[in-house]
Write a structure and sequence with these properties.
Elements (H helix, E strand, L loop, with lengths): L1 H21 L41 E4 L2 E3 L9 E3 L2 E4 L5 H10 L44 H10 L7 H8 L12 H12 L27 E2 L27 H4 L7 H11 L10 E2 L3 E3 L6
Parallel strand pairs: 5-6
Antiparallel strand pairs: 1-4, 2-3, 4-7
Length: 300
């Protein structure tokens, strides 16, 4: 564990140095989870899934928001601009009450029964028990569920007939401010994001519905919790030493910002660093998730 935390600090430190060298502006660091390669195994399918209505191109499922098709510009230029098809995204992150409904229907995901392969010791530790939520001063039923692994989040999404959003989808949706689809053009919006990253998480987390809607109508993509994405591990650095010949030297120190699409986008660097520090089984107190769904015509 000590070695893991050291690797986390090292990886985040490299990115922070890159930002400091790229700009004379200030930067606030955020906390991160332990480092480790994403587990290759995947949780089995869950039973007792609720019925999900079929949605056509113009029918937005209840509790979701349509994110229009657009272009996503990755953190690094060499990844190339990506065309993202329109998709549905949950208006709010999954709440404790919603996740409780899931574990009631799927005993294998209860705290006492979840396999160590798919969760760590912190899984749902804020709850009183398998089917009991925590005290109101520690968590709220309508607050975002946290301390859930990627495997658990993915199983929940599948149970709901949905999926986790990809990094590109999440980032494209999260680019919106309250008044613009492209929040980078709104200095105050960008400032608020950085201010949130600079502050420690306070508990209990506020109700998800208390967060203001953005341009698309989504709540809490910023300012509430970090969120799992389907392909979080694509940001992983595969080695721990700069002497590793397999590593891209552009990931270290000042070079870390050299190939960036926008070296001033500190928030994007922080999200990249945070995702690269995660392992699929980790449960983190300020990491939750929301679901997505593809837009496509479906038969009767």
């Amino acid at each position: 564990m000590i070695a893991s935390r050291f690797r986390t600090v090292t990886r985040l430190g490299n990115l922070l140095v890159a930002l400091a060298m790229a700009s004379a502006g200030g930067f606030a660091a955020a906390s991160a989870a332990p480092v480790g390669p994403a587990d290759a195994a995947e949780a089995g399918a869950t039973a007792d899934a609720p019925k999900v209505g079929k949605a056509g191109k113009d029918a937005t499922p209840p509790g979701m928001v349509l994110i229009p098709a657009g272009l996503y510009e990755p953190l690094y230029k060499n990844e190339g601009e990506q065309k993202i098809a329109s998709f549905f995204l949950d208006e709010m992150p999954v709440t404790n009450a919603e996740f409780l409904e899931f574990v009631r229907a799927n005993p294998r995901w209860r705290r006492s029964q979840a396999l160590d392969l798919f969760t760590d010791a912190h899984y749902l530790e804020q709850w009183k028990g398998d089917l009991e939520l925590g005290e109101p001063d520690k968590m709220l039923a309508d607050g975002p569920v946290t301390n859930v692994s990627w495997f658990a989040a993915k199983a929940y999404a599948r149970w709901r007939g949905k999926r986790l959003p990809t990094t590109a989808e999440w980032e494209m949706a999260a680019a919106a401010s309250a008044t613009k689809a492209r929040g980078k053009d709104d200095p105050e919006h960008y400032k608020r994001i950085l201010e949130w990253y600079a502050k420690p998480t306070r508990f209990p987390l506020p109700a998800a519905q208390s967060m203001p809607r953005d341009f698309h109508g989504v709540r809490g993509l910023h300012g509430l919790v970090w969120e799992w994405v389907e392909d979080f591990n694509t940001a992983l650095v595969t080695g721990e030493s700069r002497a590793d010949a397999g590593l891209d030297r552009n990931l270290f120190c000042g070079a870390g910002a050299a190939g960036a699409s926008d070296f001033r986008d500190y928030a994007a660097f922080m999200r990249y660093a945070f995702r690269s520090s995660l392992d699929a089984k980790y449960a983190v107190p300020n990491l939750g998730f929301r679901c997505a769904r593809s837009v496509k015509e479906e038969g009767p």
